[in-house]
Amino acid sequence: MTRFFFDFVQAGQHTKDAEGIELPNVEQAYLEAFRASQEMWSELLKQRRDPRRCIFEVRNGADEILFHFPLQEVMDCCIDRTAAPVMHTFEQLAQTRNYASRIRAEFAREVQTTKRILQDSHQLLKHPVG
């Protein structure tokens, strides 16, 4: 078993983990960082601190940094990778907006045409031809 230390970094503040925990390998250390991030997320929000800007620096007993774990990864794991990309969605929104503008213009023309026909009909009823 190897002892891993999870130093917490946010906004330039570096809090060293003095105790660490023993884990069988670096993969388990990654999973531990993930679990700790999930637990810390809501607490950081309650303190009005942005968890997306926090990271764990995971190091071994020789004080070597093995990896950085950004807490943002907690949110990234929730992303639906099958969902349409934002750009695609934006393009759809732009197309819908353009379609709505065209339809609105057509509707306005139809309303004007109908008003003219009603005015003509009204005039004909007032002054019948022949």
Radius of gyration: 32 Å
Beta-strand share of residues: 15-25%
Please give the alpha-carbon distance between the first and last residues.
108 Å
Supply the helix-strand structural class.
alpha+beta
How much helical structure, as a percent, in the residues?
A: 40-55%
**Largest beta sheet, briefly?**
5 strands, antiparallel
The count of strands amounts to 5
The average pLDDT score comes to: 88
Overall shape: rod-shaped
Helix and strand element order: EEEHEEHH
- Number of structural units classed as domains: 2
Q: Please mark out the parts with pLDDT under 50 across 5 or more consecutive residues, or reply none.
A: none
Task: Determine the oligomeric state from the structure.
Answer: single chain
Count of individual helical segments: 3
Can you put this structure into words, describing what you see?
The chain is an alpha+beta fold and 130 residues long. It has two domains: 2-76, no CATH class; 81-130. The protein has three helices and five strands, in the order βββαββαα. It has helices spanning 26-46, 72-76, 86-126; strands at 2-10, 13-15, 21-23, 54-60, 65-70. Strands 1, 2, 3, 4 and 5 form a five-stranded antiparallel β-sheet that branches. It is rod-shaped. The model has no long low-confidence stretch (mean pLDDT 88).
Question: What descriptive keywords fit this protein?
Answer:
single chain, about 130 residues, alpha+beta, 5-stranded antiparallel sheet
Could you provide a short overview of the structure?
The protein has 130 residues and is of the alpha+beta class. The chain has 2 domains: 2-76, no CATH class; 81-130.
